[in-house]
């Protein structure tokens, strides 16, 4: 498929169903290329599963957008992994992508929480949310205990 035909297909899909930004379709296409390349390197050309496409989309988003990956995809309308599937099947209906007879939107359900996967590489490794917030409270308590009195200005936090 030519780049012009792909662009036309994306424009037609977005005109009918504007849930996702055009960039989301280009992104999913790039993720599909990456998943296909991985499949080739694992033993030859073959159809890729929804899970494999999601893994490629996750990896591509993290490598391309870093800590902003989750926000970029949300900006494009991609709220979670099933949205990737909806984009795929819109492209299948337009004849841009192919699908096996047993492919379905269910292949994109319950694989993983997309945004958690996009955010987790950038979270502190040893800090869970509860422990992290407890440390903040402890720091605030320490600040209150260490206030000193200035001879000229009265109480000033140190």
Oligomer: single chain
Query: What spatial form do the alpha-carbon principal axes imply?
Result: globular
Order of helices and strands: HHHHHHHEE
What Rg is obtained from the alpha carbons, in whole angstroms? 23 Å
Helix content range: 55-70%
Q: What is the count of distinct domains? A: 1
Number of strands: 2
- Count of separate DSSP helical elements: 7
Largest sheet: 2 strands, antiparallel
Please state how the strands of the largest beta sheet are arranged side by side.
1-2
Structural class label:
mainly alpha
Q: Terminal Cα separation, in Å?
A: 66 Å
Secondary-structure map with pairings?
Blueprint: H1 3-16, H2 22-41, H3 50-65, H4 69-75, H5 81-93, H6 114-119, H7 129-145, E1 148-150, E2 154-156
Antiparallel strand pairs: 1-2
Write a structural description.
By secondary structure, the protein is mainly alpha-helical. The protein has one domain (3-123). It is 59% helix and 4% strand. The protein has a two-stranded antiparallel ribbon with strand order 1-2. Strand 1 (148-150) and strand 2 (154-156) form a beta hairpin. Helix 2 (22-41) packs across helix 3 (50-65), helix 2 (22-41) crosses helix 5 (81-93) and helix 3 packs across helix 4. It is globular and about 65 Å long. It starts with a helix and ends with a strand. The mean pLDDT is 84.
Concise summary:
About 60% of the residues lie in helices and about 5% in strands. The protein contains seven helices and two strands; from the N terminus they run H-H-H-H-H-H-H-E-E. The mean pLDDT is about 85.
